[in-house]
């Protein structure tokens, strides 16, 4: 999936709950801020999915083992 840009949107119209086009007025700055936030959320979701896939594939097992060893040795502190 690619990052959204202003060219992907029609800022003058949205579809209402009945599927009808409704005119709206939104400032360009607010649209840009919304796009930035949506792109940040997409990047975070992609990161979360990659971490979950790596964990499921066992790619993080060595880190978990190391953390468990440090915990067992009393080397970890919780704040």
Structural account:
The structure is a single chain. The chain is mainly alpha-helical. The protein has one domain. Helix content is 52%, strand content 8%. The protein has helices spanning 28-56, 61-72, and strands at residues 13-15, 21-23. It has a two-stranded antiparallel sheet. A hairpin with a 5-residue loop joins strand 1 (13-15) and strand 2. The longest helix has 29 residues, at 28-56. The protein is elongated, with a radius of gyration of 22 Å. The two termini are 39 Å apart.
Element layout with pairings:
Layout (H helix, E strand, L loop, with lengths): L12 E3 L5 E3 L4 H29 L4 H12 L7
Antiparallel strand pairs: 1-2
End-to-end distance: 39 Å
Q: What letter string, H or E per element, gives the SSE order?
A: EEHH
Rg from C-alpha positions?
Answer: 22 Å
Structural class, please? mainly alpha
Average predicted local confidence, pLDDT: 84
Which features would summarize this protein structure in a list?
79 residues; mainly alpha; two-stranded antiparallel sheet; 2 helices; 2 strands; elongated
Short description:
The chain is mostly helical. It has helices spanning 28-56, 61-72; strands at 13-15, 21-23.
């Amino acid at each position: 999936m690619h990052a959204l840009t202003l060219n992907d949107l029609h800022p003058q119209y949205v579809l209402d709950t009945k599927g009808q086009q409704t005119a709206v007025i939104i400032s360009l700055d607010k649209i840009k801020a919304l796009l930035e936030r949506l792109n940040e959320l997409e990047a975070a979701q992609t990161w979360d999915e990659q971490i979950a896939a790596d964990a499921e594939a066992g790619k993080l097992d060595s880190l978990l083992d190391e953390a468990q060893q440090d915990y067992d040795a009393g080397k970890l502190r919780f704040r």
